[in-house]
Amino acid sequence: MVNSISVTNKIKIFISSRCGDGFEKYNEVRRELKKLIESTNIANVYLFEEEGASTQSAQQDYLYALDDSDVCIFLIDNADDVTPAIMKEISRAKSHPKKSLYLFCNENKKEPTQIQRELIGATGSKYYTVKDFQDFIKHGYRDLINDICKIYRHYCRNRLVDKEFEGVNNNLEKKISVVSDSLSKHNLKGIDKSKAYLGNIIYPLNLEIEHTTELDDFMEQFLKVIWGEKEIKEFNSGLYLEILKKEQGENLNQIVKLRWHAIQSYWLNDIDKTIKYLNDALKSSKDKLMPDWFIQDILIDLRNIQTLKGRLENKIVYDTVAQLELNNMPQELFYPVIDRYEKNLNKEINKEHRKSKTSSVYSVKLGNNLSNYVDELTNIYVTACYYGSLTHILLMRDRIKDVAFHLCEEYIDWEFRVLLLKLSMITDNSKKIKENISYFNNILGKMNSKDSMEIYNFTNSIPIKTEKIKSRFEVFKHLGYFFNDTDYQLILNELLKEISNWIEKENRAVNLGEPIITSLYENRFRMDPNLIIEICLKIINKEIYYFFDKVFELLESIDLSKVHKEKLQSLTQVLVECVSSEEIRTKSQKLINAIINLKKHENEYTEELNLIVQEKMSERDKKYYFLETTNTKDIHYVKEYIKEIKRNIDLSGKNGSYSFSSYNSYLIIKDILKVNPEIVKFDLISDVIGVCVDSLQAKNLTYLEKISAIQLIVFIKIKFDKLDYDYQNLYRKLMERQDVLLVGFNSLLERHSQFTLEFNIYVFAMVFGETEAVKLIEILSELNKDEFEQIECMKALKNIVNEGFFIKLDYSIQNVLIQFVLGLKKHSNKDIRYLAVSLLIKMITSQNKKTLMTQLSKTMDYENVYIKSLILNSLDDLREVDLDITKLMLKKALVDNHYLVREMANEYSRKKAIYIE
Question: What are 101's strand-pairing partners?
Answer without folding.
Answer: 73
